[in-house]
Structure formats: C-alpha cells, structure tokens
Amino acid sequence: KKIPKNSLLSMPSYSSTCPKCTLIQSDPMACLCELCGASLLPQVAKKRRPLPPSTNIARTQTTTKKRKANDPKQRSILSFFRKQGEPMQMVSSDLSEGASTHPFDGKDIHSESAIAPTQHLPPASDDDQDFHAPTQPFQEEHENTAAVAPATQLYNSDTDDDQNEHDVKTKADLKLSIAPTQLYDDNDDKSKTEANLSITPTQLYNDDDDDKLITDATVINQEEPMDLLHDKFESRRGLQQLVSDEGSVYYRVIASTLSAVSSTRSRLSKERALVNAFSWLNSAQCEAEEFEATAYLLAPVKDSQTGGHRLQPDFISPEGGLGLGWRSVIEQAILDATGCSRSELTNARKKASDSAEAAAMLLKRLGTRRWCFGGKPRTLTVTEVRDNLLKLGLMNGPGANSRKSKLLTSLFGRATPNEMAWLIRTCNAHMSCGISLEASVIPALAQALNPRCPTQEVRAAYARRPDVRCVIDALLQSNNNNDDAISILKNIGVSFGIPLQPMLATAGNSIQHALRDFGSDQILAEHKYDGQRAQIHYADGTTTMYSRKLDEITNKYPQLVHILNSKLGNKCIILDAEIVAENTDGEGGQVFQALTSKRDDVSLVVFDLLWFDNRCICDLPLFERRRLLIEEVLPIESSSIRLAKSIQIDRNSLAIVQKELMHAVAANCEGLVLKQLDSKYEISGVGIRSKAWLKLKKDYIEGMVDSLDLVPIGGWRGSGRKSNWISPILMATYDQETQELACVSRVMSGFSDEFYAAFTKRVLGPKGIKATIENDISDLNLLIRNGPAPGVNTSENCEFWFKPGLVWEIRAADITLSPTHRSAMGIFHAKRGLSLRFPRFIRERPDKRLEQATSSSQFANFYRQQQSRGDTMTLSISNAKPLDDDEKETPLSSKPKRRILHEDGEQVARSLLVYDNDAELSPPLPLPSSTVVAEEDGDVGCVEQRRLILLGADES
DNA sequence: GCTGGCTGCCC
DNA sequence: ATTCTGC
DNA sequence: GCAGAATGGGCAGCCAGC
C-alpha cells in the first residue's frame, strides 16, 4: 500500500529496509515491502482489538469505562503495591485521595509516583538515556541554558523596524519559551518566522530540564531528532517514547504535538504535526480508545466562544465544563506542585507569554530534584489524563475546589514542564494554539489513517454524528481492510437520539446582495426569532432537547417538554426550532433577556423537520420538509407550539423583503432568514455555515439600528494575540451638566490591529505596553496613573484609566437593562443602568467634542424607542398597508410610501432610509440613531415630541 | 443562611 | 454573538 | 473564504466565606 506522493499531508518517512527479507525498498514512502509484503511500519507487540461490526450503531459509553481489573496494567499496579506493602488506595484512576500536599514530601511523592515502575523501561540501548535517573539530582539549572526550545513568541506591537530588531535580540537572549503558544508576529517579515521554524527541533526529547541533564550523550544520539514539523520520523527509538508497553499513549505526545502546532502559523505545518502524531499511534497499532483520547486532548476546548471543555461527545454528559477556575483551583495546584509562592508565580507571569508558561518556568526551576524520590518523568498517559479531567468535572459539593486542586497537583507532579504547561492551558480552556477538533484534528486523523479520505467527507460524517469514536472506528476499519474510506464514512448517518450539527445561516449585510447571490428563485423569508436554538428528538411521549452546541437542555424547559410530550402523540421526529419567551409583560422588547430567566411560559417556534417516518429527511428539499412539518406534525392544538412566520418570495422581491424585515423587527424578531426552498438540510461540518440560508439581521443593515457616540474611559491589557495592546476598552456616556462619565459597555470588537497599536502608544507612550512591564509609566497625554478621571461612574476596575476627550462611534444590536453598567441608572430601575448587546467599534469621531458625546438621557431615550419599537413600527406599517396575511397577494400601491428617519438635534439628519414600494430604492444611508416616525402621506406617528426633518423623494 | 464571585452556556 | 487577520 | 482568536452582555447554578 503506497501513500500518494502528491498528497499534501504525506506520511512521515519510514525505514526503507524490510525487517523480514531485508530488501531495500525503491520507494522510501512505501509502507509494505515490495518483495514479501511485510509491513515496514515499526511494530509493537500489542494487537489492536477487533473493531465493532458496524459503525452505524448506537454508541456505547466506552469512554468512561474504567479499565478492568484483569487489565495487565492494572494488575501490575496492584502487584506493585503488594510488594511495597503500601495501602491499595492509590490506583491510576483515583489520584485525588491521599495525594501529596507538598512536592518535597518524599513519602508522598514516592507513593504518588508509584505507578511509574509499572512502565517497564525499554531494553537498554543508546536511546534509553532519556529514562535514566539523573546523576546529579540537585543540580540547579540556569534558565537560559535550560531552555532548549527557542522562544518563538513574537509579540511585537511595534510597527517601526528598529523596535522589532530589538525584540528579536531580546527573544534570542532570553530563550524563555518552554511551550510556545501561537506565534503572533505583527511584522510582515516572513524570513523571521522561517528562521524560527528551522531551528525548532521540536521537543519530544529535549524540552525539559530532566532531559537536559542527560546532556552530551543524548545530544549525540539526537542527530536526527524527532521533528513534528518536518516529517522526520526515526522509528527505531520512536515508539517506545510514545507508547507504553501496554499500548497506552503518553501525554507527552500531546504536549510535543501541541508545542509543534503552536510554533508555526502555517496551517499546513500544523496539520502535518497532527497527522504525524496520529501516524505514530497507527504505527504502534494503538486501540481506538487511545486515538479517541488523543484527539480530544489535542483540542479539549469546546469552542472559543464559551471556553468549555470537551473530552467526550457533548451529548454524553450534560455538564461539559470542568469547573476549574484559575483563582479557585488551578493557581493553588500550581503552587503546590512547584512549591512556589504566589508572588513568585506573579513575577514569572511577567516574563512569560501566558500563565501556563510561567508555571512551567517555575517547575523547570525545580529541576530534577522532584524525580529523586523514585518518580519517573513522563509517565502520564492520555487516557489517564482524560479520565482524571473528567473526574474533576464530576467533583462537586463542599470542598470540591480543594479536592480538585489536589488531584490537579498530583497530575502536575508527574508532568514535565512542557506537559504541565499544556495541562494548565487545558484546564484554563484556553489552548490558543490554532487548531480545533472539528476543523483540524479530525481531518488529520483521517489523513493519518487513510490518506485517500477527503477532508470534506470526515468532517461531514462527524457533523452527522458528532462522536469522535464513531469516526475513528470507521477510519480504523478502512485502514485495516484497505477499504474505501468514503463508503465507510457514508455509513455514519444521522441517528435518532443523537444530536446532529444544526444547519447554520451565513450572514448577509444587504438585501440586494443576498437576493443576487441566491442560486434559486424560490425563496422563503422566515422570521428570525430571538431565542435559543433547540433540536428536539421526540419519540412516543418522550422529548429530548439539545442546544445549538449539542448540549442536552431537556431539563431547562420542563413545561415545554411536558406540552410536547402530551401533544405530539405517537410520532418519532426530530424538529429544528427556536425557544422564545414572548409574553414579556412590562419588559417590552427584552425577549431574549426574558428567556434566560424564565423556564416556564416559553413557546416553541418550529421551522424544520429532520426526521420523519423513521428516517432522516435532511436530503429532502426544504419545501418537502416544510410540507411534512405543516401537514403531519404541526396540526396540534397548542398555543405554545407553532410554525415560524414566513413568506415565499422570488429573487426580484427586494421591496417585499425590506418590508418583511420591518415586520420582523416590529415583532421583536432579530431579522429574517432567507432560505432557498429547494435546498437540503446541509450538514457539511461543525461550524460550517451554509449559503442556502442567509440571515439578515437588522443591525447588519446600516441605518437600521442605534449607534452611540461614546467616550473611552479605561481599559485592560489584552491577552494572546492582543497582549501588547489595550483591549477591551471601557466606554461611557457623558453628561455635560454633571460632567458624569457613566460606563456603558466594554468593547473589543471592530478595532483593527493597526488601531490598537496606535491607540496603545497614544495612551502608554512610545514604549507601548512594555512601559507597564518595566514600570516605566507616568501620566501621559491620555493616561491617568492613579485611578479614574473625575466624574467616572463605574464598578469596573480598569488597569489603565484615560483622560476623557475622545469620542468613538459604537454600534450595537440592542440596548439592555444592565446589572453592572451605570449609565442611566435609576431611570428605569433603581439598581440597573443601560448597556449594549453585541457592542462593536465603528470609527473614531474626531469631529465630535466631549460635549457632543451621547448623554445618559439620550441613551435613555434610545432605550425608550427600542421598548416601543413594536408599537411604532406597527403604527407606520398599518398606516401604509394592512398587515393581513393576504397582503402579499394584494397589488402594490403605486403611490410611494416612505419611512423617514430622523435625528434629534440641530443638525440635519445625517441619514435616512427610504422604503419604497416602487422598484427604485435609495440605498440606506448612515444613521446614528433612528426611529421610524412618519409616512410621506402626512400620517405622523411620534414616539416622542421631536423635531422632524422630512426629506422628499427628490432631495438627496 | 446569605452574599459575592466564579464558571458555563446562551445569545 | 461580532469582528479582524493570516493562510 | 475558511479557521481561529479575542472577547461583548447577562443569566442560573454552584461554591466559599462570612
């Protein structure tokens, strides 16, 4: 079996001499001997267990299954304890109890690492140096000699070249990096990145102190170091380093792979490192469970939005998170594991690129003394790490945090510095290394197990059934039998009871473009309700609901579940729907906020049917699915369950869409979703948005939503790629009479990198963020060192405070009643101010002085307008046309009707939106604050007494 | 038993 | 959720 | 155009500490 040479992600090169017949292969990439057919891949004794007969079967919960007592590994642990006369409480899956309280306590360390001897050392050879106990255990290491991995972070916010050259030198001198997080290179100089890559012999052996002690002999033996980035693979020594004799993959595979992945920005290189890792596991004939644990641990963060964890399929456990806070758990564990004080950690943090690296530096400083008590480094295995992390997530009740930190301490105690750094990043749910499970790890897995498997196919299979194990089983099957991966993956289908990845809509920013880009003429314009997405699996009186991210939410809405159970009868269906809170008495407009606090009195707005008549109907066109939904499912009598409001249009219905958008907004919806009526329910990958659905939100369309002119009053130092800049930034309203600056919202979205760099320098001086690191800041143009400016009203504790003076335009989707922000506090609620939903920076307003910024009373007025949005819209619309359902059939009025938008104040309205039933429409013009108040005909509905500026059809 | 802070999960 | 950026 | 990073408001649930 040959690997195609033209494959972008080719396999690592293997030994080119057959171990059986000693024929030298002509093709160095061959996996099987040309003469005798023997495998050229390195072998270990362990045989992969038989695969399940079919991949299309319901998942059994193998991930949480404990190793059985007759497992050879477990047996050897037990016998070891008997030999030692130790109590048998310490088993690998239960490290939390009786864990060491201090790392230098010899006895505890000893028992903690007692598992290590069960890992048989490989037979003596040159390669075994790595595992030898250090001969000079108490030797102190110097930081700069200890670090082998070059510091690869290039966090240069500076745009001038001199500064960058300086940084390069500093970087080389310090060599602080242990586990480089992703490169953030502001400079375009590619050669720098390349140089870094070429001198990164990635760190399977040489990333840690304890390795370093092995010194010269090791270095000599590392003529061909294992290099995850450059496809070099030396099989003779490799496998013993990666996989234990029992076939367990060491966690160091994860740590090294992630270090390699984060050391480059190139997606291909990242992918190659991942493919290599899985190729090794395949060479070692690892079992599916090892692949699975490895895959999850390479990308253990559920998604960057929420930061939750995923160590097994989402639907298996309703609680995905581990409940590990930095301050409550992780920090304590680091201090215990390194024996350092809080202030030492804080100091280390200043030199490191992130907290994980800081902790690893401290551990590295500890040197090898911690191994002296009989422990062996690098014996952590992936399944063990995964099981312990899952266990952390299950710990609750009084004292949970200290139990968690003890368990973590014991894991850290057996980790090398680099492993510890990645464990910490895992616990923090902040890997920041440029890969995700669905888009990088799964395709790499496929590439390693079957290079002919197209990425698209695995991703789609995983989206149909988001269960890594299922995909691995299929790929292993195709790998074993040399089968066609595509046909095997096609067997992984949507399964009732297992949530599938919901279809997502692409964002559209103008109606014209949206309609033009559609490939089909028949379009459904559906209201986009403001609630929570729900996928409902219902069979014979039992409902299970899943969220957009596939967590189970059945218990969140008991009343709704009860209604479904009693109404849907003897069916078996999967519905796609939105849960909304519509009866928001007295909370006008706050539909979403109402939903999050209410659990009853919510209704279900259904818009799709995915399973019917005992089969998946995703491949049917939308109009067929809707027909079935309307005819077969929704004739039920319940005020809580109904169909999403929609109209059918064609591609030339610009004006109708515009009007429908108005209706939707008036009905407290977020906007519209335009759907091609002949499209399938596309499940092409997790997170992939389909073009057959297009969402039109009111705030995407300029001029349909408020924007405010706010004053930046403070900010914080960013993290990751923004760590050299100030981000986020706290914005406030300004009241001229009282000179009060009341906080409204933090903003972090909408700023370009260029803007950040300029603003940070403007605040902190030419040294930028470095000034704060070097404690070299004084009051500058914009910076106030000792607290907020006079008049600032906020509960926020900013790192930096600014002198007020700048005015920036900020746009948002909605105004919310806020428990934290202070602007307009007391007007609508004694203890609540106003804030913004989805705030983003639009532009600077250098033309505006502080006095012209939005005031808290203006802000309050915007909120009032929003609250009465539905009323206002209805008034205008009902003046224009009837709202009946047969509206679309009635001929359009020949008389133009217009919406006039106005702005309060002296200046002429900066913009307006003309809404015209004739084909000709003026493009929407920018508008800072908008209210629909009038029709040209003279029917005027005012929200408030305001001066109106009416612009006629001919005026520009 | 209450409150404040942290975490996870919605948008 | 939004937005920006490198690939 | 994809994929990923950084981080928005705000709620409930949970735990720690008073």
Automatic annotation (TrEMBL):
Keyword Hydrolase carried by entry: no
Top enzyme category: ligase
Coiled coil: none
PROSITE patterns, per database record: DNA_LIGASE_A1, DNA_LIGASE_A2, DNA_LIGASE_A3
Region of interest called Disordered, as start-end residue ranges on this chain: 48-145, 865-901
InterPro entries in UniProt: ATP-dep_DNA_ligase, DNA_ligase_ATP-dep, DNA_ligase_ATP-dep_C, DNA_ligase_ATP-dep_cent, DNA_ligase_ATP-dep_CS, DNA_ligase_ATP-dep_N, DNA_ligase_N_sf, NA-bd_OB-fold
Catalytic activity: ATP + (deoxyribonucleotide)n-3'-hydroxyl + 5'-phospho-(deoxyribonucleotide)m = (deoxyribonucleotide)n+m + AMP + diphosphate
SUPFAM superfamilies given in the database record: ATP-dependent DNA ligase DNA-binding domain, DNA ligase/mRNA capping enzyme, catalytic domain, Nucleic acid-binding proteins
Superkingdom classification of source: Eukaryota
Pfam families documented for this protein: DNA_ligase_A_C, DNA_ligase_A_M, DNA_ligase_A_N
Residue span(s) of domain ATP-dependent DNA ligase family profile: 595-735
Alphabetical list of CDD domains matching this protein: OBF_DNA_ligase_I
Protein name in the entry: DNA ligase
EC numbers, comma separated: 6.5.1.1
Provenance organism: Aureoumbra lagunensis
Chain intervals with Polar residues compositional bias: 90-99, 865-879
Family, similarity comment: Belongs to the ATP-dependent DNA ligase family.
Keywords noted in UniProt: ATP-binding, DNA damage, DNA recombination, DNA repair, DNA replication, Ligase, Nucleotide-binding
GO molecular function: ATP binding; DNA binding; DNA ligase (ATP) activity
